[in-house]
Design a protein that fits this description.
2 domains, about 220 residues, single chain, mainly beta, 2 helices, globular, five-stranded mixed β-barrel
């Protein structure tokens, strides 16, 4: 569509070029409709990461997301997964030196409403304890002694409420150089003297991001980094 400015410039230029010729018929300028829709900016790609369901003390369901945008200000998504398996040899050596190597950890969160944050991590586990592939593992809370091959459930936050896990299970269906998929169940109690019984279950399916200390993540070639 010719813009009003372009049309005016064209008319003026034509008038100067053919000044000695009969005056041409005026060009009708069609004004652009100010209500005409303009293509919206592309939305940031969000991949479904976790589906969560709390049955006690009250039923609530959530879907959380993994942010596939090219740049993340804090280096994380609303939900994410990390593993020392995705580190190069040099990165693994640094993780071991700094005592920050974790065989597998994951977090599911969303701003809601209501908001939720939960996490599971195989702290202190070796590659023999939690190998790549599928497996069933025990989940324990902070009050219990964590054994190699068990996953620690962090405190679960739901809006302003705090729930303290006491146990559960995690089932991993796929764990490879692209990411992880599986399900979990966490039991516990709400914090406080007369805290209500708590149960949260869910599924997760997330690619690795291939960020800091994860350069061997094979999903790097198929998802935005």
């Amino acid at each position: 569509m010719r813009s009003p400015i372009s049309a005016v410039v064209l008319i003026a230029f034509t008038g100067l070029l053919f000044a000695c010729k009969p005056k041409p018929e005026p060009v009708q300028v069609v004004e652009e409709d100010p209500t005409e829709e303009v293509d919206a900016a592309p939305e940031v790609a969000m991949i479904e990461a976790c589906k969560l369901e709390m049955t006690d003390p009250e039923p609530i369901e959530w879907t959380t997301y993994w942010d596939a945008s090219a740049t993340l200000q804090n280096g994380e998504s609303p939900s994410y997964v990390h593993s020392a398996y995705w580190a190069s040899q040099e990165e693994a050596a640094e993780l071991i030196r700094s005592k920050s190597a974790v065989t597998l950890s994951l977090s599911c969160s969303t701003a809601g409403p209501p908001s939720i944050f939960m996490s599971l991590a195989a702290l202190g586990a070796s590659i023999q304890d939690v190998p790549l592939g599928s497996g069933e593992y025990t989940v324990v809370g902070n009050a219990q002694e964590l054994q190699p091959g068990q996953f620690l459930a962090g405190t679960v936050s739901v809006d302003q409420r705090t729930f303290v896990p006491s146990g559960g299970t995690i089932s991993i269906d796929r764990f490879d150089m692209d990411g992880v998929r599986g399900s979990f169940r966490i039991d516990g109690k709400e914090s406080g003297e007369n805290g209500a019984e708590f149960r949260l279950s869910g599924t997760f399916n997330m690619p690795c991001r291939g960020g800091s200390n994860e350069s061997k993540c094979e999903a790097r070639s198929t998802v935005a980094q």
